[in-house]
Amino acid sequence: MIDSIRKDPKTGKWEFDYKDLKGKRKTKKGFKTKAEAERAQAKRFEELNKGINPINKKTTIKEAGDLYLRLHASTNCKPSTYQTYQGYLNNVIVPFFGDININEISPILIKEFMKYMQDKDRVNATVNKYIKFISAIYNFMIDSDIAVRNPLARVKSLKEVKNKKIRALCTEEVQVLLSKTKKIYPDFYPLLFTAIFTGMRQGELMALTWDSINWITKKITVDKNYTHGRLGTPKTGKIRVIDMSDELAKVLREWRIACPVSENKLVFPNNEGNYQSAENMMKRRFIPALNRAGIEQIRFHDLRHTYASLLLVNGAPMKYVQHQLGHSSITMTMDLYTHLLPEVNDKCVNLLNNIVNQSIEQQEEIRRFGT
Predict the structure, then answer these.
(1) Which residue, among 276, 267, 273, has the nearest Cα to 215 in the 3D structure?
(2) pLDDT tens digits for 79-108?
(3) How would residue 144 be classed by pLDDT, with cut points 50, 70 and 90?
(4) Cα angle for residues 297, 300, 302 (degrees, 5° grid)
(5) Do the beta carbons of residue 2 and residue 46 sit within 8 Å?
(6) What is the DSSP string of 276-296?
(7) Is the pLDDT of residue 168 over 50?
(8) Residue 77 main-chain phi, psi, to 5 deg
(9) % of the chain at pLDDT higher than 70
(10) Taking the CB of residue 90, how many other CB atoms lie within 10 A of it?
Protein backbone atom coordinates (compact mmCIF):
# COMPACT_ATOMS: atom_id res chain seq x y z
CA MET A 1 0.00 0.00 0.00
CA ILE A 2 2.88 2.41 0.78
CA ASP A 3 4.24 3.83 -2.45
CA SER A 4 7.19 6.11 -1.72
CA ILE A 5 8.93 8.64 0.48
CA ARG A 6 10.10 11.87 -1.11
CA LYS A 7 11.11 15.45 -0.38
CA ASP A 8 8.88 18.27 -1.57
CA PRO A 9 11.20 20.62 -3.54
CA LYS A 10 9.00 23.62 -2.76
CA THR A 11 8.76 23.31 1.01
CA GLY A 12 11.78 21.17 1.73
CA LYS A 13 9.59 18.89 3.87
CA TRP A 14 9.37 15.11 3.57
CA GLU A 15 6.18 13.22 2.64
CA PHE A 16 4.93 9.79 1.63
CA ASP A 17 1.99 8.34 -0.32
CA TYR A 18 -0.27 5.47 0.64
CA LYS A 19 -3.70 4.02 -0.14
CA ASP A 20 -6.38 3.93 2.53
CA LEU A 21 -8.67 0.95 3.08
CA LYS A 22 -11.05 2.23 0.40
CA GLY A 23 -8.29 2.27 -2.16
CA LYS A 24 -7.99 6.06 -2.25
CA ARG A 25 -4.51 7.54 -2.64
CA LYS A 26 -3.47 9.75 0.26
CA THR A 27 -0.38 11.86 0.99
CA LYS A 28 1.05 12.53 4.44
CA LYS A 29 3.15 15.71 4.46
CA GLY A 30 5.16 18.02 6.69
CA PHE A 31 8.00 15.88 8.10
CA LYS A 32 11.24 17.69 8.88
CA THR A 33 13.52 14.73 8.20
CA LYS A 34 13.45 11.60 6.09
CA ALA A 35 13.83 9.46 9.22
CA GLU A 36 10.73 11.09 10.72
CA ALA A 37 8.78 10.38 7.54
CA GLU A 38 9.98 6.76 7.53
CA ARG A 39 8.82 6.26 11.13
CA ALA A 40 5.42 7.75 10.32
CA GLN A 41 5.23 5.59 7.21
CA ALA A 42 5.98 2.42 9.21
CA LYS A 43 3.36 3.35 11.79
CA ARG A 44 0.71 3.99 9.14
CA PHE A 45 1.58 0.70 7.43
CA GLU A 46 1.11 -1.12 10.75
CA GLU A 47 -2.23 0.59 11.31
CA LEU A 48 -3.44 -0.38 7.87
CA ASN A 49 -2.41 -4.00 8.41
CA LYS A 50 -4.43 -4.03 11.62
CA GLY A 51 -7.41 -2.57 9.84
CA ILE A 52 -7.21 0.78 11.65
CA ASN A 53 -8.16 3.67 9.42
CA PRO A 54 -10.13 6.66 10.79
CA ILE A 55 -11.38 7.53 7.31
CA ASN A 56 -12.88 4.05 6.83
CA LYS A 57 -14.86 3.58 10.05
CA LYS A 58 -18.20 3.74 8.24
CA THR A 59 -17.51 0.65 6.08
CA THR A 60 -19.84 -1.90 7.68
CA ILE A 61 -20.24 -5.58 6.97
CA LYS A 62 -23.53 -4.77 5.24
CA GLU A 63 -21.86 -2.25 2.92
CA ALA A 64 -19.10 -4.73 2.17
CA GLY A 65 -21.65 -7.49 1.57
CA ASP A 66 -23.71 -5.29 -0.73
CA LEU A 67 -20.59 -4.47 -2.73
CA TYR A 68 -19.75 -8.15 -3.04
CA LEU A 69 -23.25 -9.01 -4.20
CA ARG A 70 -23.50 -6.15 -6.68
CA LEU A 71 -20.01 -6.32 -8.19
CA HIS A 72 -19.23 -10.03 -7.96
CA ALA A 73 -22.13 -12.36 -7.16
CA SER A 74 -24.56 -10.71 -9.56
CA THR A 75 -22.33 -11.56 -12.52
CA ASN A 76 -20.45 -14.66 -11.33
CA CYS A 77 -23.11 -16.63 -9.46
CA LYS A 78 -26.42 -18.19 -10.42
CA PRO A 79 -29.54 -16.15 -9.59
CA SER A 80 -30.56 -18.74 -7.00
CA THR A 81 -27.12 -18.53 -5.36
CA TYR A 82 -27.29 -14.73 -5.41
CA GLN A 83 -30.66 -14.83 -3.64
CA THR A 84 -29.30 -17.28 -1.08
CA TYR A 85 -26.34 -14.99 -0.35
CA GLN A 86 -28.66 -12.01 -0.08
CA GLY A 87 -30.67 -13.91 2.52
CA TYR A 88 -27.53 -14.81 4.46
CA LEU A 89 -26.45 -11.16 4.52
CA ASN A 90 -29.73 -9.50 5.43
CA ASN A 91 -31.27 -12.15 7.69
CA VAL A 92 -28.27 -13.65 9.46
CA ILE A 93 -25.02 -11.71 9.21
CA VAL A 94 -26.16 -8.08 9.49
CA PRO A 95 -28.50 -8.73 12.47
CA PHE A 96 -25.56 -10.20 14.40
CA PHE A 97 -22.71 -7.85 13.46
CA GLY A 98 -24.78 -4.68 13.08
CA ASP A 99 -22.90 -1.53 12.00
CA ILE A 100 -19.46 -2.69 13.09
CA ASN A 101 -16.56 -1.78 10.80
CA ILE A 102 -15.40 -4.79 8.77
CA ASN A 103 -11.82 -4.10 9.86
CA GLU A 104 -12.80 -4.33 13.51
CA ILE A 105 -14.27 -7.82 13.22
CA SER A 106 -11.80 -10.18 14.88
CA PRO A 107 -11.41 -13.97 14.72
CA ILE A 108 -12.80 -14.25 18.24
CA LEU A 109 -15.94 -12.37 17.17
CA ILE A 110 -16.32 -14.74 14.24
CA LYS A 111 -16.17 -17.66 16.67
CA GLU A 112 -18.78 -15.95 18.83
CA PHE A 113 -20.98 -15.72 15.74
CA MET A 114 -20.51 -19.42 15.03
CA LYS A 115 -21.37 -20.37 18.61
CA TYR A 116 -24.42 -18.11 18.55
CA MET A 117 -25.68 -19.80 15.38
CA GLN A 118 -25.18 -23.24 16.90
CA ASP A 119 -27.13 -22.14 19.97
CA LYS A 120 -29.90 -21.06 17.59
CA ASP A 121 -30.02 -24.70 16.40
CA ARG A 122 -28.29 -24.10 13.09
CA VAL A 123 -26.58 -27.30 11.97
CA ASN A 124 -22.82 -27.16 11.45
CA ALA A 125 -23.15 -27.46 7.68
CA THR A 126 -25.32 -24.34 7.59
CA VAL A 127 -22.97 -22.37 9.87
CA ASN A 128 -20.09 -23.32 7.58
CA LYS A 129 -22.00 -21.88 4.64
CA TYR A 130 -22.37 -18.57 6.50
CA ILE A 131 -18.64 -18.58 7.28
CA LYS A 132 -17.69 -19.37 3.71
CA PHE A 133 -19.83 -16.48 2.48
CA ILE A 134 -18.34 -13.99 4.96
CA SER A 135 -14.85 -15.11 3.98
CA ALA A 136 -15.69 -14.55 0.32
CA ILE A 137 -16.76 -11.00 1.16
CA TYR A 138 -13.45 -10.32 2.92
CA ASN A 139 -11.37 -11.77 0.10
CA PHE A 140 -13.25 -9.57 -2.36
CA MET A 141 -12.64 -6.51 -0.16
CA ILE A 142 -8.94 -7.35 0.11
CA ASP A 143 -8.65 -7.74 -3.66
CA SER A 144 -10.34 -4.34 -3.97
CA ASP A 145 -7.83 -2.72 -1.56
CA ILE A 146 -10.57 -1.97 0.95
CA ALA A 147 -9.76 -4.51 3.67
CA VAL A 148 -6.26 -5.57 4.65
CA ARG A 149 -6.94 -8.88 6.36
CA ASN A 150 -9.44 -11.70 6.53
CA PRO A 151 -10.37 -12.56 10.14
CA LEU A 152 -11.64 -15.95 8.95
CA ALA A 153 -8.32 -17.00 7.41
CA ARG A 154 -7.38 -19.19 10.37
CA VAL A 155 -10.85 -20.00 11.68
CA LYS A 156 -11.57 -23.70 11.19
CA SER A 157 -14.85 -24.90 9.77
CA LEU A 158 -17.13 -26.88 12.04
CA LYS A 159 -17.13 -30.63 11.72
CA GLU A 160 -20.09 -31.71 9.65
CA VAL A 161 -22.02 -34.88 10.37
CA LYS A 162 -23.19 -36.40 7.12
CA ASN A 163 -26.87 -37.18 6.92
CA LYS A 164 -27.25 -40.94 6.85
CA LYS A 165 -31.04 -40.74 7.02
CA ILE A 166 -31.66 -40.35 3.33
CA ARG A 167 -35.24 -41.33 2.61
CA ALA A 168 -35.58 -43.48 -0.47
CA LEU A 169 -38.79 -45.21 -1.45
CA CYS A 170 -38.64 -48.98 -1.74
CA THR A 171 -39.90 -50.83 -4.82
CA GLU A 172 -43.33 -51.52 -3.30
CA GLU A 173 -43.81 -47.85 -2.34
CA VAL A 174 -42.85 -46.74 -5.85
CA GLN A 175 -45.39 -49.12 -7.36
CA VAL A 176 -48.19 -47.96 -5.08
CA LEU A 177 -47.36 -44.26 -5.55
CA LEU A 178 -47.30 -44.52 -9.35
CA SER A 179 -50.47 -46.61 -9.47
CA LYS A 180 -52.46 -44.18 -7.28
CA THR A 181 -51.09 -41.11 -9.05
CA LYS A 182 -51.95 -42.44 -12.52
CA LYS A 183 -55.58 -42.88 -11.46
CA ILE A 184 -56.08 -39.71 -9.42
CA TYR A 185 -53.61 -37.21 -10.96
CA PRO A 186 -52.96 -38.34 -14.55
CA ASP A 187 -51.56 -34.90 -15.43
CA PHE A 188 -48.88 -35.31 -12.73
CA TYR A 189 -48.08 -38.97 -13.43
CA PRO A 190 -45.58 -38.35 -16.30
CA LEU A 191 -43.57 -35.85 -14.24
CA LEU A 192 -43.51 -38.18 -11.23
CA PHE A 193 -42.55 -41.16 -13.39
CA THR A 194 -39.71 -39.18 -15.00
CA ALA A 195 -38.42 -38.00 -11.63
CA ILE A 196 -38.32 -41.53 -10.21
CA PHE A 197 -36.72 -43.13 -13.26
CA THR A 198 -34.15 -40.46 -14.17
CA GLY A 199 -33.13 -38.90 -10.85
CA MET A 200 -33.47 -35.43 -12.40
CA ARG A 201 -33.71 -32.54 -9.97
CA GLN A 202 -36.95 -30.63 -9.58
CA GLY A 203 -35.65 -27.54 -11.39
CA GLU A 204 -34.28 -29.67 -14.21
CA LEU A 205 -37.68 -31.28 -14.73
CA MET A 206 -39.41 -27.89 -14.76
CA ALA A 207 -37.02 -26.67 -17.46
CA LEU A 208 -37.01 -29.85 -19.59
CA THR A 209 -38.00 -29.26 -23.22
CA TRP A 210 -39.05 -31.74 -25.90
CA ASP A 211 -36.02 -30.97 -28.04
CA SER A 212 -33.81 -32.27 -25.21
CA ILE A 213 -35.22 -35.78 -25.69
CA ASN A 214 -33.66 -38.00 -28.34
CA TRP A 215 -36.23 -40.69 -29.11
CA ILE A 216 -33.84 -42.70 -31.29
CA THR A 217 -30.93 -43.01 -28.85
CA LYS A 218 -33.26 -42.77 -25.84
CA LYS A 219 -31.18 -40.09 -24.22
CA ILE A 220 -32.21 -36.97 -22.32
CA THR A 221 -29.91 -33.94 -22.33
CA VAL A 222 -30.05 -32.09 -19.02
CA ASP A 223 -28.87 -28.58 -19.83
CA LYS A 224 -31.36 -26.28 -18.11
CA ASN A 225 -32.71 -25.56 -14.65
CA TYR A 226 -35.73 -23.48 -13.57
CA THR A 227 -35.77 -22.27 -9.97
CA HIS A 228 -37.00 -19.15 -8.18
CA GLY A 229 -38.70 -17.98 -11.37
CA ARG A 230 -35.46 -17.95 -13.34
CA LEU A 231 -34.06 -20.14 -16.09
CA GLY A 232 -30.43 -21.14 -15.70
CA THR A 233 -27.94 -23.97 -15.98
CA PRO A 234 -28.04 -27.22 -13.96
CA LYS A 235 -26.86 -27.09 -10.37
CA THR A 236 -23.31 -28.20 -11.18
CA GLY A 237 -23.14 -25.88 -14.19
CA LYS A 238 -22.40 -28.88 -16.40
CA ILE A 239 -24.56 -30.46 -19.09
CA ARG A 240 -25.13 -34.19 -18.74
CA VAL A 241 -26.81 -36.80 -20.93
CA ILE A 242 -28.80 -39.52 -19.16
CA ASP A 243 -30.39 -42.76 -20.31
CA MET A 244 -34.13 -43.15 -20.81
CA SER A 245 -35.72 -46.56 -20.23
CA ASP A 246 -38.18 -48.07 -22.70
CA GLU A 247 -41.04 -47.66 -20.23
CA LEU A 248 -40.19 -44.00 -19.61
CA ALA A 249 -40.04 -43.37 -23.35
CA LYS A 250 -43.51 -44.90 -23.66
CA VAL A 251 -44.90 -42.73 -20.86
CA LEU A 252 -43.45 -39.55 -22.38
CA ARG A 253 -44.69 -40.38 -25.89
CA GLU A 254 -48.22 -40.73 -24.55
CA TRP A 255 -47.86 -37.56 -22.48
CA ARG A 256 -46.70 -35.57 -25.49
CA ILE A 257 -50.14 -36.00 -27.04
CA ALA A 258 -51.97 -34.78 -23.90
CA CYS A 259 -49.39 -32.18 -22.83
CA PRO A 260 -50.61 -28.53 -22.79
CA VAL A 261 -49.27 -26.50 -25.69
CA SER A 262 -46.16 -24.55 -24.68
CA GLU A 263 -44.35 -21.89 -26.67
CA ASN A 264 -41.18 -22.87 -24.83
CA LYS A 265 -41.72 -26.54 -25.77
CA LEU A 266 -41.82 -27.49 -22.09
CA VAL A 267 -42.37 -31.15 -21.28
CA PHE A 268 -44.06 -30.37 -17.97
CA PRO A 269 -45.72 -26.94 -18.27
CA ASN A 270 -48.65 -25.68 -16.26
CA ASN A 271 -52.14 -25.57 -17.79
CA GLU A 272 -51.31 -22.30 -19.57
CA GLY A 273 -48.17 -23.74 -21.13
CA ASN A 274 -45.81 -21.73 -18.91
CA TYR A 275 -43.19 -22.81 -16.40
CA GLN A 276 -44.68 -24.63 -13.41
CA SER A 277 -44.47 -23.26 -9.91
CA ALA A 278 -42.59 -25.77 -7.80
CA GLU A 279 -44.54 -24.65 -4.74
CA ASN A 280 -47.89 -25.24 -6.45
CA MET A 281 -46.78 -28.60 -7.78
CA MET A 282 -45.76 -29.75 -4.30
CA LYS A 283 -48.94 -28.44 -2.68
CA ARG A 284 -51.49 -29.54 -5.26
CA ARG A 285 -49.98 -32.74 -6.62
CA PHE A 286 -46.94 -34.27 -4.93
CA ILE A 287 -48.02 -34.15 -1.28
CA PRO A 288 -51.64 -35.19 -2.06
CA ALA A 289 -50.31 -38.08 -4.17
CA LEU A 290 -48.19 -39.29 -1.24
CA ASN A 291 -51.19 -39.04 1.07
CA ARG A 292 -53.41 -41.03 -1.32
CA ALA A 293 -50.73 -43.72 -1.54
CA GLY A 294 -50.40 -43.89 2.24
CA ILE A 295 -46.74 -42.86 2.18
CA GLU A 296 -45.31 -40.56 4.83
CA GLN A 297 -44.30 -37.15 3.52
CA ILE A 298 -40.93 -36.96 1.83
CA ARG A 299 -39.07 -34.26 -0.05
CA PHE A 300 -39.29 -34.16 -3.83
CA HIS A 301 -35.49 -34.49 -3.83
CA ASP A 302 -35.91 -37.90 -2.19
CA LEU A 303 -37.15 -39.18 -5.55
CA ARG A 304 -33.60 -38.61 -6.77
CA HIS A 305 -32.35 -40.77 -3.90
CA THR A 306 -35.02 -43.33 -4.78
CA TYR A 307 -33.73 -43.55 -8.34
CA ALA A 308 -30.17 -44.12 -7.13
CA SER A 309 -31.18 -46.78 -4.61
CA LEU A 310 -33.32 -48.64 -7.15
CA LEU A 311 -30.39 -48.75 -9.57
CA LEU A 312 -27.98 -50.02 -6.93
CA VAL A 313 -30.36 -52.64 -5.52
CA ASN A 314 -30.80 -53.99 -9.03
CA GLY A 315 -27.08 -54.32 -9.59
CA ALA A 316 -26.09 -51.09 -11.35
CA PRO A 317 -22.41 -50.14 -10.90
CA MET A 318 -21.74 -47.14 -8.67
CA LYS A 319 -19.95 -45.44 -11.58
CA TYR A 320 -23.12 -45.62 -13.69
CA VAL A 321 -25.17 -44.09 -10.87
CA GLN A 322 -22.63 -41.27 -10.60
CA HIS A 323 -22.91 -40.56 -14.32
CA GLN A 324 -26.70 -40.59 -14.31
CA LEU A 325 -26.95 -38.23 -11.34
CA GLY A 326 -24.21 -35.92 -12.57
CA HIS A 327 -22.09 -36.08 -9.41
CA SER A 328 -18.64 -34.53 -9.74
CA SER A 329 -16.93 -37.57 -8.20
CA ILE A 330 -17.73 -41.17 -7.45
CA THR A 331 -16.71 -40.50 -3.85
CA MET A 332 -19.73 -38.25 -3.45
CA THR A 333 -22.02 -40.95 -4.84
CA MET A 334 -20.55 -43.60 -2.56
CA ASP A 335 -20.77 -41.37 0.51
CA LEU A 336 -24.45 -40.78 -0.19
CA TYR A 337 -25.68 -44.20 -1.15
CA THR A 338 -23.41 -47.03 0.01
CA HIS A 339 -25.28 -47.28 3.31
CA LEU A 340 -28.54 -47.91 1.42
CA LEU A 341 -27.29 -51.39 0.54
CA PRO A 342 -27.02 -53.32 3.81
CA GLU A 343 -27.68 -56.61 2.04
CA VAL A 344 -24.73 -55.96 -0.28
CA ASN A 345 -22.53 -55.04 2.67
CA ASP A 346 -23.49 -58.28 4.45
CA LYS A 347 -22.44 -60.28 1.39
CA CYS A 348 -19.11 -58.47 1.23
CA VAL A 349 -18.36 -59.24 4.89
CA ASN A 350 -18.56 -62.98 4.18
CA LEU A 351 -16.50 -62.96 0.97
CA LEU A 352 -13.27 -63.92 2.76
CA ASN A 353 -15.06 -66.65 4.72
CA ASN A 354 -15.77 -68.35 1.39
CA ILE A 355 -12.06 -68.35 0.58
CA VAL A 356 -11.23 -69.96 3.94
CA ASN A 357 -13.98 -72.56 3.54
CA GLN A 358 -12.78 -73.49 0.06
CA SER A 359 -9.22 -73.90 1.38
CA ILE A 360 -10.40 -76.26 4.15
CA GLU A 361 -12.44 -78.33 1.71
CA GLN A 362 -9.44 -78.72 -0.60
CA GLN A 363 -7.23 -79.91 2.29
CA GLU A 364 -9.83 -82.49 3.33
CA GLU A 365 -9.97 -83.82 -0.22
CA ILE A 366 -6.19 -84.15 -0.31
CA ARG A 367 -6.16 -86.15 2.94
CA ARG A 368 -9.10 -88.29 1.76
CA PHE A 369 -7.41 -89.38 -1.44
CA GLY A 370 -3.88 -89.46 -0.09
CA THR A 371 -2.36 -87.11 -2.67
Answers:
(1) 267
(2) 888 989 999 999 999 999 988 989 889 999
(3) confident
(4) 85
(5) no
(6) PPHHHHIIIIIHHHHHHHT--
(7) yes
(8) -120, 160
(9) 85
(10) 14
